[in-house]
Design goal:
The protein has 433 residues and is of the alpha/beta class. The chain is built from 14 helices and 19 strands. The strands form 6 sheets. Strands 8-14-13-12-11-9-10 form a 7-stranded mixed sheet, with helices on both faces. Helix 8 links the parallel strand 11 and strand 12. The two termini are 24 Å apart.
Amino acid sequence: MQIENASPRGKRHFMQYENTLAFARRMDREDPLRAFRSQFLFPKHDDKPAFYFCGNSLGLQPKTMRRALMQELDQWQQYGVEGHFKGEMPWMYYHKFLKNQSAQVVGALPEEVVVMNTLTVNLHLMMVSFYRPTAQRYKIIMEAGAFPSDQYAMETQVRWHGYAPEDAIIEIAPRAGEENLRNEDIIAIIEQTGDQLALVMFAGVNYYTGQFFDLESITQAAHRVGALAGFDLAHTAGNLPLRLHDWGADFAVWCSYKYMNSGPGGPSGAFVHARHAHNPDLPRFAGWWGHDESERFQMRKGFKPMVGADGWQLSNAQIFAFAAHKASLDIFEAAGMDNLRKKSLLLTGYLEWILDQVNPDGERFKLITPRDPAARGCQLSVLTDASGRALFDYLSENGVICDWREPNVIRFAPAPLYNSFEDVWRLGQLLRL
C-alpha cells in the first residue's frame, strides 16, 4: 500500500501497487500524460532507449527544440540586425514571450518573473538587492549541505560585506541520526536568531536528499522576525507546483536545464515579489537591458529601472538559449504543473514501493528522501553500502542513466513528462539482481 498525495500540502489517499509488468503497462495506458513521452529524445543503449532517471541533473531534449533553434537561425539569416524588431518574435522583446509560462511554473504574476543570465549570476544579483546587512542584522540562515554554488555565493557575499562566514552564516543540519531537516527546527532557529537575521536563503529541494522544504512557513517565519526570504529553486522549478507570489517569498532564482529540459547551461529565471518589484530605489546592479525600454535607445545617463523583475536585467537576451527554453515551456503549459504533480506522486510512489520490494530488509541501501510525498518531488536518493559504486556501474552497463553523488548516494528522478511506470518496473528488475 502506497500513500499518494494530491497536492504539495494536500489530502492523502491510497494506491495499491503491483510488482508486475502488466500493472506497469496498465498504469501507462491509463496515464493522461502518456503522449508527452513521445515528444522527447532518449539516449540509446544497445540501440534501444535508455532508462533515463537523471532529469534532476539534465532533462531530455524536446523534439521541438531543433525547430525552435532553426527558426531563430532563419530569422537571423532573413533580417540580420533588424531581427531585433521584425519577425514573429522580435529579439528585442524575447524575454516577454517567456513571462506568462514562467509565471505559471513558479506561481507568480508575470511582472514578477524574468528569464535572464544563469543561476548563480542571478543569485548574486538578488543578493545585491536583498542582503543588506547592518551591524545588528547581518546573519544568513541556510540548510547545511546546500549545493556548493549556494554555499560559495553566501560565503563570498558575507565576506564582501566584511563579515566572517563562520559568524554570519548559520547552517541548519538534521538532528543526530536523521537524514532530513524538521520544519519545526528551521522555524525555531529563525525565531532564535531574531533581530540578528538578515536573510533566510534556502533551496526549494535539497539536491542531495531530495527533501522539499515548506517554503511558505519558512517565509512567514523570516518575515515575523523582520528578515527576508529567498530561495534557490534549481531542483524545484518544473518539479513541484509553486506559489511564490501567494507564499510571499521576497525573491527566488532557478535554472532551466534540469526538470525544465532547456538544454545544458540553459538560462535562469528570477522572481522578485511585486512589493519589491515596484521600488525603483531598491539597490541593484544595473545594465542597459534593465533600463526603461521606452527610453533605452536615448542612451542617456541615469539608470531608470523597468517596472517589475525586468528591472534586474543586465544584458540583451541569449536568443538561441531562450528559444530552446521556450520550446520546453510550451510543453509545460500544455501539460500543466498540477497534472504533472499528480503523475509524479504516483510514479515516485511506485519507485519507492519497488525499492522496498527489492530491498525489504534495508541492508543494501536506505532511502534518505522523505517518505512523506508532500515533502519531496520526483527525486528519490538512495544511500548505499560499500558496494554502492559497483551497483551504480552495473545499472549504467544495463542502460540506466541515473546519478552518483559522493560519497555513496544514487539519485533516481522519474520525471512525469517522459518517464513511464514501465521504466520504474524495469529498474526494479535490475535492482533485484
